Amino acid sequence: MGRALQRTAIYVVLGLWLVAVVLPLGWVFVNSLRSSQEFVANPFGLPWLFTGGPEGHARAEAWQQAKANYAKAWVESHFSSFFVNSVIVTGCSLVGIILISAMAAYVLARFRFRGGRALFLYFISGMMIPAQLVLVPLFFQFTWLSRAGSRLLAPFGLELRLHDSLSGLILIYVALSLPFTILVLTGFFKTLPGELREAGIIDGCSEYGVFWRIMFPLARPGIVTAAIFNFIGLWNEYLFALVFVSSAAKKTLPLGLASVSMQSQYKTDFGLMFAALVIVIIPTLAVYMLLQRQLTSGITTGALKG
Amino acid sequence: MKQAAVWMSMNLALGALLCACDAIRPPADQSVGGALVEVAVFEGGYGIGWHQKIAQQFNDERRAQGVQVSLWGDPRVQDKIKPRLLRRDPPDLLLMHQLPFWLLVSAGKVLPLDEALNQPAYGAEKPWRECFLPGMLQSYTSGGKVYAVPSSLGAWACWYDARLFREHGWSVPSTWGEFESLCERIQEAGIAPLAFQGKYPRYAWFTLTALIQRCGGLAAINRDNRMDAGAFSHPDVVRAAGLLQSLAVRFFQPGAMAMTHTESQLQFVNNRAAMIFCGLWLVNEMKATIPAGFEMRCFNVPLVEEGKGNPNLFNGMGLEYVFVPTDARHPKEAADFARYLVSPRNAPDMGRSIGVISPLRGGTPRDTVGPPLQSALDMIERAQGFFNDRLSDLMLAWDNQVMQPNLAALLRGAMTPEAFGAALDAGIAAARRNPDLVIPEYLPFDPVAFGETP
Amino acid sequence: MTERTSQRVFAGVFLAPAFFLFTGFVALPGARALLYSLQKWDGLGRAEWIGLENFARLFQQGDLFLKALGHNLFIMGAAGSSVIGLALLFAALLHRRIRGAQLFRVAFFFPNVIAAVAVALLWVLLYSTTHFGIVNAFLAQVQSGCHALGWTWPNWRLPVPFLDSRFLIYSVVPMIIWEVTGFYMVLFLAAMEGIPESYYEAAKLDGATGFQQFRHITLPLIREVLTVGLVFLMISTLKFFDAIWVMENQTPTRDSHVLATLLYQKVFTEYNVGYGSAVAVCLFVLVFLGTLVSLRLSRAERIEY
To answer: Is C184 exposed, middle or buried (0-12, 13-18, 19+ CB in 10 A)?
Structure first.
């Protein structure tokens, strides 16, 4: 009897939190299927898309509305371009972060040389630097780097613009993610057996070959963990994008979402707003669902990513 | 060794790929083979469609000279522009507000427009300067130079639904006493008398400024704008604050203090609240959501009994000013486009297309706008002139950290009018101690010229 | 070429990209921030050395900085304690291998992977004072339900203006709890699953209740992860930015500023680079101390099972 009661209590507590977590998200999704007029008239009920409206609104019409919300977000509000920008920035950054960190981490973990420990600590000290500290100096640094670069490139009829470019953002993201990723991967490379390298060398591999053909593939679990946490962080990054990107053509998703929310305030377009929210949420949801096992098993690592 | 070279070059290639994918590009000018003028515009309720149309028109006329305008807008354009001014890569022409304008002017970051102002206006035989309504350029003048020109005329008014008023037999009040009793009658009818954009207390600041003029005349406005010691503790200001407070406490819609401008204005157009104080942009901002049959009209802030101010004046100013930053790549072309944008030739179309009233004399003929704005034009025509507050644009930190929170407290009834005035004065005194603050000279409004006895 | 030299070349080639990127885009800018904080500079004209004046200004009575820091500390205390408490509770419940544990684990974690901007906008809608604000609608239901039962309580003045600047700092607390509890739950759960089952069996033989097992076995054994989580939470609340920035439409007021928003506003909207950098340096000192502690603790001797 007591046991059953206890069990029920547990389920009630967990169930309440489940509702609190899932309900708002479901609400967003459902509302993205309503027109603004419907949202104002019927914010909590089932969408007219499923029930038909009060005055016998045709379902076809509601369906058109739902599609219109997404079309408006995707095309008119340029979410397609925000999306592509986010994919480019996150993708390039991840490739850069993983490759550069893995190379450094491999050397730091497997080779003993003078200053190696100091160098490792130098990288790790970056974890104690909040991104906000480097934000302002980087901003001015980009200005003079761009000016210097443009002077060099002028003879070729080109100019360098680190501000307002995806590349600039990628550069920053890579640099800022290095400490965390190097820490994780160094730890991982340390666990790999050292004999593998000798075996590789005997088989005629160079040091480069050993890294690329043997060590890098073996480090996959560590790399995946580091990549997931970096992915979530970068896909959702707002502050740096806000400072370094100002033109509409270079906006990433969080930036685009924030500005659409401002616009929808001036135009009172709720349908657009909800559709935009769904577009931002879906990719992380998908990645999370696919990789949640690796993510939850690497969670202790994630806690180090400040 | 060969492999080291291969890896190194792979690194470099990767780096180049990552960095150069869009950071290295040909200068934008190359695409037009001449001067590409970048124009950034505040995108509010009006949208930017009209501005783009004018830019297109301009481009068609200038194609031969190789001058092309590329115009973009954003609701938070000032936040986009501030960093760009800081990185010395601003657009060539800016149309917006809420910038630390005078800081920029004093740092030499804004070009004077006098040369363009002395050239003939597009669509008129006289210099551009002389086309503006009197007093329009005053707010942007310092040391005899004009650093910006307004592109629209803003006016503060109280909006109502004429149909709702007709149905209930209410009439437009002309005195503050009538206004308050009207609010009572509306309340008795079960409707909230006033909607309010409480998330942005700034909206009440305009009403308060109008009330200060009604109570104390232009002399009081001058005192405040000059930042005289104790200007906001003056009995006239305290009285105005008291009137506003008693209005807010009794007649603002419940929950209004947490509503954004859109939310509260939606309450108004859906007749959940009968009236709302707002600028002329209200008409456009709510265009899409106004139900059929809603007759939006406005009246000036009513006169206050025994007040010293001329009740026909209105709280207004040239808004959305246009200026050319010093770091612009094409300052001449930018100033030329400014003269084209704000011209007698294009002003009527601005009224017709987006319902914006022009800061030019006779720029907006009555038949170019709908009934809501016609009622605003009536109000403007009745007035001999306008007045405005300059502090909220001049001292952004004070506005944000002192004025708005204290104003919110006043409206909630959490602060007496006396304490409110004292807090504003103390805030001004503190703000003036800030060595970074730039205060341009003040050109006062002349009470006598506007029919007031000082 | 000797093997030794080629190894050196190899190490150099592999370390160089990370070293230069990190130095050029993290370490040097970090050092430069320290210099900026000692200057009076509007970012446009000439900089002027003023020593520690910026810091003196920060700690003046009534300055925004202290107010903002207070808000960070409030969020840290209020949200932090609730998050740790709830996360421990949920982890302990799930640790009992109940049916559907996997579902709960996956769902609870989810808000964590959503962009903070999206979460903030979602909560703006939930908190709305208009009729579609779900939180206010819920409170109204509760209130009328209670009144229907003949109670005189509660007497809330509805709608509650959650998004009013004055209340925003309080209003973000439930949002943060909603957003991050799942992360810490999974973190603690992972630690709990590392505890050998035999410990619990032994305890059961001794007649320990569920709570006693939690208190005397689980808690001590996950203490290390618990501290790491706590410190991480503290750091992330110090850096809190996105939600306030979005919910305040990019213009936080005296009542709603946190350190990061103050930094942004001072530098990029008020052009006071020196002051803003001084805020950044203070933030750095706090985070530095926090991270130092966390790294120390996470390397502390592990309990051998």
So the answer is: buried
Structural domain count of chain C: 1
- pLDDT of amino acid B1: 60
- Residues of B whose CB is below 8 A from C6: 1, 4
Six token digits for residue B208: 């308060």
| Closest to A163 (Cα-Cα) out of A182, A144, A178 | A144
Architecture of the A77-302 domain: Orthogonal Bundle (1.10)
| Domain coverage including residue C72 | 44-127+162-298
pLDDT at B397: 79
Beta bridge partners of C186: none
As a whole number, mean pLDDT of residues B96-103 equals 82
CA distance B341 to chain C (A): 27
In a domain, C82, yes or no: yes
- Predicted pLDDT of residue C302: 42
DSSP summary character for residue B360: B
Contact A127 C36 (CB under 8 A): no
Average pLDDT over residues B126-136: 90
Out of C157, C255, C268, name the one closest to residue B405 (CB).
C255
The tens digit of pLDDT for each residue in B174-204 reads 999 999 999 999 999 999 999 999 988 999 9
Q: Is residue C257 part of a domain?
A: yes
* φ, ψ for residue B121, nearest 5 deg: -75, 155
Query: What's the pTM?
Result: 0.83
Pairing of strands B67-74, B35-42: parallel
Coil vs helix vs strand at B350: helix
Residue of C nearest to A7 (CA): C98
- Which residues of chain C have a Cβ shorter than 8 Å from any chain B Cβ? 1, 6, 9-10, 13-14, 16-17, 40, 42-45, 64, 128-130, 157-166, 249-251, 253-255, 268-272
Q: Residue ranges per domain, chain B?
A: 28-149+321-371, 155-315+387-433
Instruction: Compute the radius of gyration of chain B from its Cα atoms.
Output: 24
Establish whether domains B28-149+321-371 and B155-315+387-433 are of one fold.
yes
Q: Name the residue facing C116 among A11, A135, A238 (closest C-beta).
A: A238
CATH 3.40.190.10 fits B155-315+387-433, yes or no: yes
Q: What is the pLDDT of residue B17?
A: 64
**In this complex, which of C157, C162, C268 lies closest to B82 when CB atoms are compared?**
C268
Nearest Cβ partner for C1 among B1, B396, B436: B1
Backbone angles phi, psi at B195, to 5 degrees: -80, 155
CB < 8 Å to A171, chain C: 21, 25
Residue B18, pLDDT above cutoff 80: no
Q: What is the CATH number of the domain that holds C118?
A: 1.10.3720.10
Mean pLDDT, consecutive 10-residue segments, chain A of 306 residues? 82 93 91 82 76 67 85 89 93 92 94 90 90 95 92 87 91 94 91 86 86 89 90 93 88 91 71 90 89 81 66
C265 neighbors C47 (Cβ within 8 angstroms): no
Residue C194: inside a domain, yes or no? yes
Q: Which residues of chain C have pLDDT under 70?
A: 1, 294-295, 297-305
User: How far apart are the C-alpha atoms of C156 and C82, rounded to whole Å?
Assistant: 23
What's the pLDDT score for residue A58?
A: 67
Report, as an integer, the average pLDDT of B83-107: 88
Q: How far apart are CA A43 and CA A46, in angstroms?
A: 9
Residues from chain B contacting residue C268 (CB–CB below 8 Å): 79, 82-83, 86
Class level of CATH domain B28-149+321-371: alpha beta
For C25, the closest of A172, A261, A304 (CB atoms) is A172
CA distance B103 to C128: 37
CB contact under 8 A, B288 and A268: yes
Q: Which of A122, A127, A133, A228 to mutate to test the interface with C (most CBs of C within 10 A)?
A: A133
The answer as to whether C229 is a domain residue is yes
Contact C161 B258 (CB under 8 A): yes
A107 to chain B, any CB pair closer than 8 A? The answer is: no
Please tell me if residue B20 touches chain A, with a CB cutoff of 8 Å.
yes
Q: Which chain B residues are Cβ-neighbours of A162 within 8 angstroms?
A: 23
Chains near A, with 3+ CB pairs < 8 A?
B, C
pLDDT digits (tens, 9 = 90+) for C4-52: 888 888 899 899 999 999 999 999 999 999 999 999 998 888 888 999 9
